[in-house]
Design goal:
Elements (H helix, E strand, L loop, with lengths): L20 E5 L1 H7 L2 H16 L10 E4 L3 E8 L6 E9 L10 E8 L6 E6 L1 H19 L6 E5 L3 H9 L8 E5 L3 H8 L5 E3 L3 H7 L2 E4 L18 E4 L11 H6 L1 E4 L23 E3 H6 L12 E4 L4 H18 L3 E4 L1
Helix pairs in contact: 2-3, 2-9, 3-4, 3-9
């Protein structure tokens, strides 16, 4: 371009970042802004786009704090979205301090300029997007006539699973089993079709859908309890073993978010160690081609979740857009 035709602009050494207003959203505001059904719909689209290679989602680095916990950085971007970067910290000792053991924050950035557009608490997002992705697996893979579900665990993920399960199937019973029976009883009071149970084996043997939601370092059920035709999801993370029996992962139809699930922890799942990535089918493949899902009414299908930044991006952008439309949230000078 001839020099005379160039648009004049300041030299880079003359340009500074002027003050701007950045949207802020706390945990309660994010929870209010996110509609669970809308999240399920958009996550289904997101998984399809992820499988088609339309979303950038690099591996997540980890910082380990010996004896305390770990910190993960998760980033994702899709055209039309704000760039999303989440930091999630998992510190198990927090429960003794009256804090959640998962704490997270998300920064959103304008994809045209890279300028920060929003800072939001991501503790609720981490919980609900994990449960919603598990619900998507049940929607895509469970038999339509499924009527009995069992939730193993009574923590945050169990609560979110109980909240979302009725959105994907018309269950007659939702059974809840936990090592702490009082917690199971309290959680069951949140839904009219839920009840706490003490015989986990009997519940699993009866169930069409099973949701493992624990932080257990060892399998919480036995593979032989799971009847033919069951759809099972597992969202817990606790190397070196984890909550999902490896036998189930090795012998059942296996579904994951991405092939990264087969990498060593913290990128991948401990329960999938030694299993060839070729054995896994991504949820996005099923979204894009339903013939890659359940093949008959007798096979056992298993979805093992590791968490993916695409899920955070979808949820955070939904909350951000709703906040802009409704005027929710606060502002800070930046």
């Amino acid at each position: 371009m001839p020099a005379a035709d160039r648009t004049p602009h300041s030299a880079s050494f003359e340009v500074g970042k002027s003050r701007q207003k950045v949207l802020t959203l706390n945990e309660q505001q994010v929870a209010h802004l996110l509609d669970p059904m809308e999240l399920l719909i958009e996550l289904e689209k997101g998984f399809g786009a992820l499988a088609r290679g339309e979303i950038q989602c690099p591996p997540r680095p980890q910082i380990q704090v010996p004896g305390k916990g770990f910190s993960l950085s998760m980033a994702a971007w899709q055209p039309g979205m704000q760039i999303c970067v989440k930091i999630v910290n998992v510190f198990d000792g927090n429960l003794e301090l009256g804090l959640p053991n998962h704490l997270a924050v998300i920064n959103l950035f304008d994809s045209n300029t890279g300028a920060v557009s929003c800072v939001m608490d991501a503790t609720h997002i981490t919980a609900v997007r994990t449960a919603a992705s598990a619900m998507l697996s049940h929607k895509l893979l469970s038999r339509p006539e499924s009527r009995i579900a069992t939730i193993v665990g009574a923590g945050v993920q169990a609560r979110e699973h109980l909240r979302l399960l009725p959105l994907i199937r018309n269950f007659d019973e939702i059974l809840i089993s936990s090592l702490d029976s009082d917690h199971a009883e309290g959680l069951a009071k949140l839904h009219s079709k839920a009840r706490a149970v003490t015989d986990l084996e009997e519940s699993v043997r009866r169930s069409d859908v099973i949701c493992l939601t624990t932080h257990s370092p060892a399998p919480v059920i036995q593979a032989e309890w799971v009847k033919p035709g069951t759809q099972l999801s597992s969202v817990g993370y606790h190397p070196p073993l984890g909550e999902l029996p490896t036998e189930l992962a090795r012998t059942s139809r296996l579904f994951v978010e991405t092939p990264d699930a087969f990498a060593p922890p913290p990128v991948g799942c401990a329960e999938l160690a030694g299993i060839a990535p070729s054995r896994g089918t991504s949820l996005g493949e099923v979204v894009n081609d339903s013939t890659k899902g359940r093949r008959n009414d007798q096979e056992i299908t298993v979805y093992k979740s590791m968490g993916n930044a695409m899920e955070d991006m979808i949820a955070a952008n939904l909350a951000y857009r709703r906040a802009l439309a409704t005027g929710a949230g606060g502002e800070m000078d930046w």
